[in-house]
């Protein structure tokens, strides 16, 4: 059972750059892109060593110095995986997440994994900022987008998560026992089935989507006491499809969020091909939040560092940029 993240200090790998001068950086980027062929290394070195807040200031300076849009210029100079990474780093976090959600719902198929990864792990404040960014960028509410792209119980869970309305307080022991009982009933290991399946499912959803992290940790402990089973293991066994996947993601995020991301990074690089989209998305979105914690969980669980995994699985400028975000060998 993973250690709950109480009292753990979350730390990103990217921080504000000291002696920051946005005009100087804007000039450096302009020079790197001038003439024939761009100096990709200079571009990636500069952008990966500035915080997101600083990158926004560089965009402003670039516009006032040259009357041009830095994002558009970068887009015309770099392409492929590197472009996705660098342009992603340049976006404010809420707008980046909004774009990833939009992409996950575009076209024929839905990328449920991406929807789950984002919506099951973001804080209330992050979710609310994403909803605002989504509306601003796509003139449609995130809720409407989710509703038209997913269905059934899975849709209801995502819409609930997208309200950013999770309780923030501590635990309530009596309530936790009741919640654990509901979980035991829905997962079919309690002796006393009460009420019909649908209302139970709804109650279980309410518990996982709206209770505070601290309270849910208590619920999971009560669940073990009551049933001798681990709630995550039981969900995996008793449920199926997208509903199972989103519930498992919530439980893992509550237990240990950096470990959740470490697992996803490992899977993105395991086996024959690389899932660059997931790798890029997590490296960008966690770079200023908890990437150092993710690195620690990664090496503890997989006996190799995130740095080594990235080195063994990617190449070229994309590799250099990822390692710069990773911020060192463990």
UniProtKB/TrEMBL annotation:
<dbReference type="InterPro" id="IPR037104">
    <property type="entry name" value="Annexin_sf"/>
</dbReference>
<dbReference type="GO" id="GO:0005544">
    <property type="term" value="F:calcium-dependent phospholipid binding"/>
</dbReference>
<comment type="similarity">
    <text>Belongs to the annexin family.</text>
</comment>
<dbReference type="GO" id="GO:0097190">
    <property type="term" value="P:apoptotic signaling pathway"/>
</dbReference>
<keyword id="KW-0677">Repeat</keyword>
<dbReference type="GO" id="GO:0042584">
    <property type="term" value="C:chromaffin granule membrane"/>
</dbReference>
<dbReference type="GO" id="GO:0051560">
    <property type="term" value="P:mitochondrial calcium ion homeostasis"/>
</dbReference>
<dbReference type="GO" id="GO:0051283">
    <property type="term" value="P:negative regulation of sequestering of calcium ion"/>
</dbReference>
<dbReference type="GO" id="GO:0005739">
    <property type="term" value="C:mitochondrion"/>
</dbReference>
<dbReference type="GO" id="GO:0005634">
    <property type="term" value="C:nucleus"/>
</dbReference>
<comment type="function">
    <text>May associate with CD21. May regulate the release of Ca(2+) from intracellular stores.</text>
</comment>
<dbReference type="GO" id="GO:0001786">
    <property type="term" value="F:phosphatidylserine binding"/>
</dbReference>
<keyword id="KW-0963">Cytoplasm</keyword>
<dbReference type="InterPro" id="IPR002393">
    <property type="entry name" value="ANX6"/>
</dbReference>
<dbReference type="GO" id="GO:0006816">
    <property type="term" value="P:calcium ion transport"/>
</dbReference>
<dbReference type="GO" id="GO:0042470">
    <property type="term" value="C:melanosome"/>
</dbReference>
<dbReference type="GO" id="GO:0005886">
    <property type="term" value="C:plasma membrane"/>
</dbReference>
<dbReference type="GO" id="GO:0005509">
    <property type="term" value="F:calcium ion binding"/>
</dbReference>
<dbReference type="InterPro" id="IPR018502">
    <property type="entry name" value="Annexin_repeat"/>
</dbReference>
<dbReference type="InterPro" id="IPR018252">
    <property type="entry name" value="Annexin_repeat_CS"/>
</dbReference>
<keyword id="KW-0106">Calcium</keyword>
<keyword id="KW-0041">Annexin</keyword>
<protein>
    <recommendedName>
        <fullName>Annexin</fullName>
    </recommendedName>
</protein>
<dbReference type="InterPro" id="IPR001464">
    <property type="entry name" value="Annexin"/>
</dbReference>
<dbReference type="Pfam" id="PF00191">
    <property type="entry name" value="Annexin"/>
</dbReference>
<keyword id="KW-0111">Calcium/phospholipid-binding</keyword>
């Amino acid at each position: 059972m993973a250690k709950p993240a109480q009292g753990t200090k979350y730390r990103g790998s990217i921080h504000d750059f000291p002696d920051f001068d946005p005009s100087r950086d804007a000039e450096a980027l302009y020079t790197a892109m001038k003439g024939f062929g761009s100096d990709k290394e200079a571009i990636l070195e500069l952008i990966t060593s500035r915080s997101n807040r600083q990158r926004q200031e560089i965009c402003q300076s670039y516009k006032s110095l040259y009357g041009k849009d830095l994002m558009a210029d970068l887009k015309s100079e770099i392409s492929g995986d590197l472009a996705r990474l660098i342009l992603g780093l340049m976006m404010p976090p809420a707008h980046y997440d909004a774009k990833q959600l939009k992409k996950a719902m575009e076209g024929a198929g839905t990328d449920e994994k991406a929807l789950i990864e984002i919506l099951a792990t973001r804080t209330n404040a992050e979710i609310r900022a994403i909803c605002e960014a989504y509306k601003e960028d796509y003139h449609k509410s995130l809720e409407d987008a989710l509703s038209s792209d997913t269905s059934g119980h899975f849709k209801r869970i995502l819409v609930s998560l997208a309200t950013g309305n999770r309780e923030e307080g501590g635990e309530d022991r009596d309530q936790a026992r009741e919640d654990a009982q509901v979980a035991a009933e829905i997962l079919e290991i309690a002796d006393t089935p009460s009420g019909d399946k649908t209302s139970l499912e709804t109650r279980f959803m309410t518990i996982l989507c709206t209770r505070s992290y601290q309270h849910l940790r208590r619920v999971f402990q009560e669940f073990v006491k009551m049933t001798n089973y681990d709630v995550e293991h039981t969900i995996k066994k008793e449920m199926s499809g997208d509903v199972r996947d989103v519930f498992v993601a919530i439980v893992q995020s509550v237990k240990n969020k950096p470990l959740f991301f470490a697992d996803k990074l490992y899977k993105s690089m395991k086996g024959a091909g690389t899932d660059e989209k997931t790798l890029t998305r997590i490296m960008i979105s966690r770079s200023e939040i908890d990437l150092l914690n993710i690195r620690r969980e990664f090496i503890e669980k997989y006996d190799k560092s995130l740095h080594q995994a990235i080195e063994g699985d990617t190449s070229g400028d994309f590799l250099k940029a990822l390692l710069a975000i990773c911020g060192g060998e463990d």
